[in-house]
Amino acid sequence: MKTGFFLLSLLIVTLSVMPPAAAAPESIEVLYVPANGNQVSTAASLIQGQTYTFRISGMFVWGGCGPVVCPGGAPDYTRWADARFMTDDHFHNVHTGYVYLTINGSIPHIPQYSPDHIYTVQVVGTGAPATFRIQDGGCCYADNSGALRVELLSPGEPPAIAMGVKPFSQYSVPVVITAGWGEDRYGDPRTTDESDIICRWGCNLTAWAMMLDYYGAAYGKHSNPRELNNWLREHEGYIVRGVVYNKVVQYANEYWGETPLRLSPVRVEGRNDQRLHQLLSAGIPVMLRVNNGNHFVLAVGETMQSGVQTWYIHDPGGCNADPYTSPLTTLLSRYQNQYTHMYWAEAQAAPTPRSSITLALGSPAELLITDPLGRRTGIDVRTGEIHSEILDSSYLLEQLASDDETGGLDDHPIKMFNLPLPMDGSYTVEIIGRDNGAYTLDVFAYDEIGGLTRATLPGSITPGEVDTITIIYSADPDEGIHIRYAHPIFLPFIRKP
Ligand SMILES: [Ca+2]
After folding, report:
1. Given a cut of 60, is residue 45 above it in pLDDT?
2. Does residue 400 fall inside a structural domain?
């Protein structure tokens, strides 16, 4: 078992050693068939009489609906379809009808619905390029968005794995109906303004929403970026523009309350392809940190591309995303197969232990946490040492890049300590100054049934100065969780406000 800790300094090094953007090799042809009715073709002609195999994956929005006609379509009442099947209740019920894909003008033979939305079809060459087009009643494309992905497979292509995660975009899905959330105000309402909107900063939010929607779908519990964003804004789920992961867990567990489903605490780990394979094989979508750590996408499967192992991802995109570009792509095609960290949470039948500790620090300082066994995680500014001894803990700089045309970095980076399933006992948290300034330390401590003990501790710091707090942690809800400044301020109890 590897500890889920990653060196802050590595992130900085990564900036300078990232390979230059290179065109991904594409010996297998990949096409996107937009839901707007445009036809796309393979680049080459298919030899007459020869059989070719295409893999068609993904899903798109073919319209909007409402509570009367589509009572199962809440919360956003969007109607979806994949290569063959359409739905008006988020794939709870599926049928065929007037929305379908054509290949060379015909409906492909896809006899059975597949919940991963991947279909493999054989196409006999006609001596011309193969053509693909999405039909929507011949008329009704204005309220559509998204695209299907089509791969021309080479002989002996191994099967891909994928999950039927609905691909949300940060921008509006679809553009022309009220479900578009791209311009919704984003982040902590006390510290952000009207220029902080989902399409600019909401990649992490959107990836979480996809994950929650996927897990909740089995119980008819659908999430989307707007629903999650609204809840986080009302429940201190943001530190400025940073999503507090375990607030997402709290949201899921409250939203799923009447179902047996519960979300585990969030795990964070550096790049680990083997673990990623295990998780995806077990049906667990994994959030990947890409683009030098400043952007988030959701891995939903794996595949081979030009003989290279890569991963299907849903990319939330950003403000300028074309609504007919599928969020479904691969890590190889878009990010040179690079990622720095993985974040995931499992949905399990209750009871699932929900205990965790998250610390978020905004300041010119670093955190050094010592657990009840004397193990440490964090950065000791005094010595320059980086510690990663607490099992499964992570300490990371969270800083998004704006997903608009500026691409500028969030000017409120947060240092986040995360520890799922902490052991009971006393944790010492040292706030060690790098520079002069004010800091805010936010503490989110959850007991095993998800009860939150929350504190915001303000202070000021100078280089090398150390402020210390103690967290007396117990996962037992009857014991309570106590947080106090060691000296000189004494806050005896902050108990589930
Ligand atoms: Ca339509």
Report:
1. yes
2. yes
User: Cα(220) to centroid of ligand 1, in Å?
Assistant: 23
User: Distances from the Cα of 386 to the Cαs of 126, 318, 414, 470, in angstroms?
Assistant: 62, 34, 17, 20
User: Does residue 237 sit within a domain?
Assistant: no
Write the CA distances from 98 to 85, 132, 379, integer angstroms: 10, 16, 59
Between 131 and 17, the more confident residue is 131
Interval 260-297: pLDDT, tens: 999 999 999 999 999 999 999 999 999 999 998 899 99
Ligand 1 midpoint to CA 141 (Å) = 5
pLDDT for 173 equals 54
Query: Which amino acid is residue 486, in one-letter code?
Result: A
Q: What is the CATH number of the domain that holds 36?
A: 2.60.120
User: Which residue among 132, 156, 180 closes a domain?
Assistant: 156
User: Pick from 111, 127, 156: which residue ends a domain?
Assistant: 156
**And the tokens for 204?**
């992490």
Q: What average pLDDT does the structure give for the chain?
A: 88
With bands split at pLDDT 50, 70 and 90, how would you rate the model's confidence at 327?
A: confident
pTM: 0.88
Give me ligand 1 centre to Cα 216, in Å: 25
Cβ neighbours for 247, distance < 8 A, ≥ 6 positions apart: 232, 235, 236, 237, 444
* φ, ψ at 215 (rounded to 5°): -65, -40
* C-alpha 334 – ligand 1 centre gap (Å): 28
210: which DSSP letter? H
Give distance in angstroms: CA of 114 to centre of ligand 1.
Answer: 22
**Type of residue found at 379:** I
Each residue of 83-118: pLDDT tens digit?
Answer: 999 999 999 999 999 999 999 999 999 999 999 999
What range defines the domain where residue 446 resides?
8-14+355-485
CA of 34 to the centre of ligand 1 (A): 12
How many A from CA of 309 to the centre of ligand 1? 35
CA of 140 to the centre of ligand 1 (A): 4
pLDDT of 18 over the 80 cut: no
Query: What separation in Å is there between the alpha carbon of 86 and the centre of ligand 1?
Result: 11
Q: Residue 444 is encoded by which pair of tokens?
A: 């989110």
How far is the centre of ligand 1, averaged over its atoms, from the C-alpha of 63 (Å)? 4
The number of distinct structural domains making up the chain is 2
**Angle at 454 (CA atoms; ends 453, 456), nearest 5 degrees:** 155
What single letter denotes the amino acid at residue 251?
A: Y
Give me the DSSP letters along 135-202: EETTT--TT-EEEEEEEEEPTTPPPPEE-------SS-SSSSSTT--TTSB-S-TTT--TT-BHHHHT
In a domain, 248, yes or no: no
Residue 120 lies in a domain: yes
